[in-house]
From TrEMBL:
Name this protein carries in UniProt: Type I restriction modification DNA specificity domain-containing protein
Coiled coil feature spans: none
Keyword hit for DNA-binding: yes
SUPFAM superfamilies: DNA methylase specificity domain
Domain Type I restriction modification DNA specificity: 8-181
Keyword list, A-Z: DNA-binding, Restriction system
UniProt-listed Pfam families: Methylase_S
Record-linked PANTHER family: TYPE I RESTRICTION ENZYME MJAVIII SPECIFICITY SUBUNIT, TYPE-1 RESTRICTION ENZYME ECOKI SPECIFICITY PROTEIN
Entry-linked InterPro entries: Restrct_endonuc_typeI_TRD, Restrct_endonuc_typeI_TRD_sf, Type-I_RS_S_subunit
UniProt record similarity statement: Belongs to the type-I restriction system S methylase family.
Range of residues in the leader sequence: none
Keyword DNA-binding part of the UniProt annotation: yes
Length: 296
């Protein structure tokens, strides 16, 4: 059903049904056994389990999809499938789980690791091809089981699968740490604005500082420039990330008046000021222009 990808040396062409059981049955569990329950919102678009619930098996055995530790879940319904919802099932309570009926369950065979199977289901090719093969009406389209079973892919040796999974895991961890650092810096920036400028609470600072109006040391610059068609434009990025040249694919209007900006001037966006859209115009952008919505 899907186009066969080029196969590297030593890798074998395969279908998912050759490497995994698709939507297999799980053995029954006692009614009083505790199991993991995963509604669709407990599986993130980044492939992680977030917000798993622990329930008694009797409460979820009927009407939900069953799976086991080591299985791979893939959302089948739109837009969850296109948004990469899915996960590798780890640390399930008593190694058993139940969840949304909108999951496909893939249980690895001996020739593939769960980690590699999970990676495969998160590739752009798998998701893109699956989207093209969805069936059903708008808003209720789903990826059919037959597509999943017959999806073609190159299957490496187990040792190479583990190497690939370890490498990507390290990369994902680095990305996650970077994103957390960026978020922490943004929160610190907001705190500094609030504590040191907007709402100073340190009594020593507030008694020594003077209360002044910004207008006493800043003036608005409105040097007439060209128009939207001819101007070399600048814009201000959010969260204090600076002033940059604006990359526009479409030519602006001749009737729109722009203003000339000079290096060293302070510029901010009236619309996104609270989101940190302000900065100092660098030397290399002196002479560029912006709309009147940006005041310096």
């Amino acid at each position: 059903m899907s186009k066969i990808l080029p196969v590297p040396n030593g890798w074998k062409p395969a279908k998912i049904k050759d490497a995994a059981h698709v939507n297999p049955r799980s053995n029954s569990v006692d009614d009083d056994s505790l199991v993991t329950f995963l509604p669709m919102n407990a599986v993130s678009e980044s492939g992680l389990i977030e917000g798993a619930e622990i329930r008694k098996a009797i409460d979820v055995k009927k009407g939900f999809t069953s799976f086991e530790t080591g299985d791979v879940l893939v959302a089948k319904i739109t837009p969850c499938f296109e948004n990469y919802k899915g996960c590798l099932c780890t640390d399930l309570k008593n190694d058993r789980g139940y969840g949304s009926t909108e999951f496909h369950v893939l249980r690895p065979k001996k020739n593939i690791t769960g980690e590699y199977l999970h990676i495969l289901t998160r590739t752009h090719h798998f998701r893109g091809t699956g989207e093209l093969n969805m069936t059903g009406t708008a808003g209720q389209k789903r990826v059919p089981t037959v597509f999943v079973k017959n999806y073609d892919f190159p299957l490496p040796q187990l040792s190479e699968q583990k190497t690939i999974a370890d490498l990507l895991s390290t990369w994902d961890e680095a990305i996650e740490k970077t994103e957390r650092l960026i978020q922490a810096k943004e929160e610190l920036f907001k705190w500094l604005l609030r504590e040191l400028i907007s709402e100073p609470r340190n009594t020593q600072i507030t008694t020594e500082w003077k209360i002044v109006k910004i207008g006493s040391f800043l003036t608005e610059s409105r040097i007439s420039g060209t128009n939207g068609r001819d101007a070399q434009k600048i814009t201000v990025k959010l969260y204090g990330k600076g002033v940059v040249a604006k990359d526009e694919k479409r030519i602006g209007s001749e009737t729109t008046q722009y203003c000339v900006r000079k290096s060293g001037q302070f510029i901010y966006s009236k619309l996104d000021f609270l989101n940190g859209a302000f900065g100092i115009i660098p030397e290399e952008l002196g002479g560029f222009e912006s709309l009147g919505g940006f005041v310096i």
